[in-house]
Specification:
172 residues, two-stranded antiparallel ribbon, alpha/beta
């Protein structure tokens, strides 16, 4: 099983449209979140499996509302296109403003629960110092409000994607 994580400014969605279908069918595609336009573009694509950290990037909160990178429209797009929202521990560990980050993550978790969007958590570590025990990561996100943690998402998603022979044509 291959997992491909793209960082960048949304060009990957255009690249994925031109990729061979067998490439997309056998891999989990993770795109990094960013500003609102990038998040919308990523969630509109049928090729993406996980949008990682939509709250990332420079965001300015309004007076009575946090700008967490997700809203009602984006959650509906994620649900419609069967895209999970991912949260990484690595971003939390490397953040200078953890208080704001925790607030945005809590708001995104509430939105995902309200609109029944699948959520994925992981360390997404870039070096050894960021690795943590699976139970510790789960405990942190349960404190932040995530009740159900689906450990089999990646496996289920790959099984679902392998059912399709071509774009839009299912074996069943």
């Amino acid at each position: 099983m291959d997992i491909i994580c793209f960082d960048g400014n949304g060009r990957e969605v255009e690249v994925l449209k031109k990729a061979p279908f067998t490439f997309i069918r056998e891999k989990i595609i993770i795109l990094q979140g960013g500003d609102d336009e990038l998040n919308r573009k990523n969630l509109s694509s049928k090729y993406v499996d996980i949008l990682l950290d939509p709250h990332q990037g420079y965001r300015k909160d309004k007076i009575y509302q946090k700008d967490s990178g997700l809203n009602e429209v984006l959650c509906k797009l994620a649900k419609e296109n069967d895209i999970a929202i991912g949260f990484s521990l690595s971003l939390i560990l490397n953040s200078n403003r953890r208080g704001e980050l925790f607030g945005r993550i809590i708001q995104n978790i509430k939105l995902c629960k309200k609109y029944k969007v699948k959520m994925v958590i992981g360390t997404f570590a870039k070096d050894k110092s960021e690795l943590r025990n699976e139970k510790d990561v789960e405990a942190l996100f349960k404190i932040l409000g995530m009740n159900v943690i689906d450990r089999e998402f990646v496996k289920k998603r790959l099984e679902f994607k392998k059912k399709f022979v071509r774009k839009g044509v299912s074996e069943e």
